[in-house]
Automatic annotation (TrEMBL):
Protein name: Response regulator transcription factor
Segments forming domain HTH luxR-type: 132-197
Top-rank lineage group of the source organism: Bacteria
Organism, scientific name: Novosphingobium aquiterrae
Acyltransferase recorded as keyword: no
A Pfam family per the record: GerE
PANTHER family: DNA-BINDING TRANSCRIPTIONAL ACTIVATOR DEVR_DOSR
Keywords tagged on the record: DNA-binding, Transcription, Transcription regulation
InterPro entries per record: CheY-like_superfamily, Sig_transdc_resp-reg_C-effctor, Tscrpt_reg_LuxR_C
Length: 200
């Protein structure tokens, strides 16, 4: 089964949700309708493409949730007469395409083709980011500061000067940091920090 064989529709407007579901089903596209993200999270699908009504919050909330859970599905946003700023913001937040309702079968299939092409590359990147962030969340605030210092290429002495602690204390934090992150060496910890967008 391809990732795009199921379209996961999220729309709080019952009438429009029914209209879109009926229209897509009649076009031969399998639709799983959901009223909200809360409902979706309770029964998160293994594959598919999300088609979410863009209310200004849905796209960043969904992207944030998928990144946190390291469970990525391509997301297409849609709106009724969306302004240019709304479309740009949704794409910047992580939507792979944007449709204007009412839309036709051709537009939906074109968006699904884009989703299929981008799924593996984007999904793998998001998955790595989510996994890296979950590792970073295990660290204490001080361990994160030490990690930033390490990523900046500073020695234990210079990190200690930056944080007003002794080099020996930095060494202890550094060892704890590597252990909690499951990193075998400093360069691996730096890679994880970069993937988690803690450092650039």
């Amino acid at each position: 089964m391809r990732h795009t064989d199921i379209l996961i529709l999220i729309d709080a407007d019952g009438r429009r949700r029914a209209a879109i579901s009926h229209f897509l089903a009649s076009s031969g596209i399998h639709v799983e309708p959901f009223e909200s993200m809360t409902e979706l999270v309770q029964r998160w699908p293994r594959n598919g493409v999300i088609l979410a009504h863009d209310d200004g919050h849905a796209v960043p909330t969904l992207i944030g949730r998928m990144t946190k859970d390291a469970n990525w599905l391509p997301l297409i946003a849609f709106g009724v007469e969306p302004g240019t700023n709304r479309v740009v913001q949704a794409v910047l937040n992580g939507a792979i395409d944007y449709l204007e309702w009412p839309f036709g079968e051709t537009e939906v299939r074109a968006a699904l083709a884009v989703a299929e092409e981008s799924h593996d590359a984007m999904g793998n990147a998001r998955l790595r980011e989510g996994m890296a962030r979950s590792r970073i969340q295990r660290l204490t605030p001080r361990e994160r500061e030490v990690l930033v210092g390490v990523a900046d290429g500073l020695s234990n002495r210079l990190i200690g000067e930056r944080l007003a602690i002794s080099p020996r204390t930095v060494e202890i934090h550094r060892a704890n940091m590597l252990n909690k992150m499951g990193a075998n060496h400093t360069s691996e910890a730096i890679r994880i920090a970069i993937e988690a967008a803690l450092v650039s």
